[in-house]
Specification:
homodimer; about 400 residues; alpha/beta; Aspartate Aminotransferase, domain 2; 8-stranded mixed sheet; 4-stranded antiparallel sheet; about 45% helix; globular
Amino acid sequence: MGNYTKPIDLKYSDRIQQVPRSFIRDILKVASSPEIISFAGGLPNRKYFPVKELSESTARVMKNQASTALQYSLTSGLPKLREIIATFYTNQGLNIPIENILITTGSQQALDLIGKTFINEGDTVLLEEPSYLGAIQAFSMYRPKFKAIELQADGINIEKWEEAIKHDQPKFTYMIPNFQNPTGISYSLQKRKEVAKRAIENNSLLIEDDPYGKIRFSGEHLPNIFSLAPNNTILLGSFSKIIVPGFRLGWVIADKKIINKLEVAKQAADLHTDVFVQHIVIDFLKHNDLNTHLNKILKAYKTQADSICDAMAEYLPENFTFTKPQGGMFTWVTMPNNYSSLKVFNEAQKRNMAFVPGVPFYIDRKDASTMRLNFSCSEPNIINEGIKRLAKAIEQLYPSKF
Amino acid sequence: MGNYTKPIDLKYSDRIQQVPRSFIRDILKVASSPEIISFAGGLPNRKYFPVKELSESTARVMKNQASTALQYSLTSGLPKLREIIATFYTNQGLNIPIENILITTGSQQALDLIGKTFINEGDTVLLEEPSYLGAIQAFSMYRPKFKAIELQADGINIEKWEEAIKHDQPKFTYMIPNFQNPTGISYSLQKRKEVAKRAIENNSLLIEDDPYGKIRFSGEHLPNIFSLAPNNTILLGSFSKIIVPGFRLGWVIADKKIINKLEVAKQAADLHTDVFVQHIVIDFLKHNDLNTHLNKILKAYKTQADSICDAMAEYLPENFTFTKPQGGMFTWVTMPNNYSSLKVFNEAQKRNMAFVPGVPFYIDRKDASTMRLNFSCSEPNIINEGIKRLAKAIEQLYPSKF
């Protein structure tokens, strides 16, 4: 700016000094060239956005409710939208009053509000290892001590987790039991029950982040841990993967006392979430069957998940393992311990293929022998070609291992 | 919820324990009955929402850009929207690159991000006395020591302010130089120049909150302090009062280094602001002349401001003073020191009239002899009747003083 001459000496807060630049953002910059086959993103497939239906809803809202839909509104979110969200859980035997639901500016805001409401500097927060980067970033702002607990193929390592609860007295444990980002792993029914039981026994708080719960394309729907331990659980949901992410609409379900505190934090954070898009989503869900819409997404994602698993089985070395996801948007490749995902990333990039190395999903950000691969945005033939390129990059780096 | 049986023992953060329930929210609940004449709100007048134009823009965005406008997007906000915002300041001789602009989820989010980025617990923050409640709430979350500096009829008390800067080494000073909420006071040109000069001399950071700058209906536009001390100032703006508040769209302008830090905080807070409404506002401003739209608002607000000032001059006791605002949405009544605005509020309520007692706009939340009156949402005849009722309430409580 022409007017800037002598920048003043700035004193930032300690918390902002500590937060590292987003690793994924740098990777996505690399991955954005059109010639690259990228499994690096984390986007829902825009082909399945219900554009026509949302256009109709938008026109109706503008015609019938404009002056309310464009004015300031309630911090807690529209009651009608909260009623609709409550119905998402009735098939689990839950009857959730709207006072237990808070609308948030995307699920990400719920993570920030939870951090703000619960974490004092130095408090312990337990996470799965690996865990969702956005949660690590949001909680980091409140300067907790993180402790990462091994994530196994059927969910968190229960014994190690309970040991940490008893030893570290954490403020809460953050979990993604359905089709986790980054690993695609889902908790078994048995593990869900164990988690609920031990949380109750230890009087310990859980954050159950569930953005992908309705994106199950194989296997049977399993209950939210919230339904098994409602007094111990704060449940997060989102419209980003089931309708569209651009609206930034999510929700929190919890005990009323907790919701009241989160609402105070939300009022200070942004007064309320865009109420225009809240009206649009209410109208959309009134005039359209959500399951009919979801089935289109599930069909495509299942085909793409099958494609990536088939290609990995065919082209990747035999000593590699990977998740066969039953839902969500990601799979996770584990290479032998001494392999470097950063080196593989650089080599794959030369072959116009990209993914996210496992690094940012671990608390200590060391190099990792793991990779996150997104399958929601690529057609099967592209997926096949992308995995071929990945296999060549690995062969180039680690030839003797093939 | 039927499922809640034994709520667990919750340990909240210290910061959330301290934030009091919103005083204004309780008052607005009282003021929401239809028979009440309320000057308590802080809403722009929905009569002047450009509904037809926004409907057209929304339809065009859905037709031409749906898949981008509904997908995840940039944390910094759409470049085109930032370009448009930059043009708002060219008449002040400013040429602002888009790298210096961050889109926020309403101006309120900018306050939260600034608190997060700058305030360590115990840092001093300087405010005008009285100040905007939303800023006090947002900054409170980061547990600063507040120090309030007298606000005079032409702006902050410069000598007391500079003394506080030298003595307390504040992280920043928060100011609303145009038509302040709650007082309606604007800084004179002279005071703006003095503030800029002393901020530069003392190497001190200013937060210039300017949601009402374009809502000037009398007098001449005065420069933002940002234009006089760009290295020392973070400037906040908002579409809430010039287009619609329901979209939750605001912006921050600052040095690139500061914007980078705020962007890290924003990514952790909500990833990005609703990109659908960003597209709508871009389209609206491309197809409509903002000044033509603003002139309708200004004409109405001027008539209403004149009405409330005329009515106050006619009905209120002579020893009362009030702001004659040149813009914005509020006026501010100062009663003799020993009068209680809380008592007046209760008495006015019995007469179906409401306003906001001055209390929540002061750091120490004692009773106050001041009142905030909003004039943007009432017709002149209603305004006249409301002030009559207020005068009767005052006469009932303080009869000898008339």
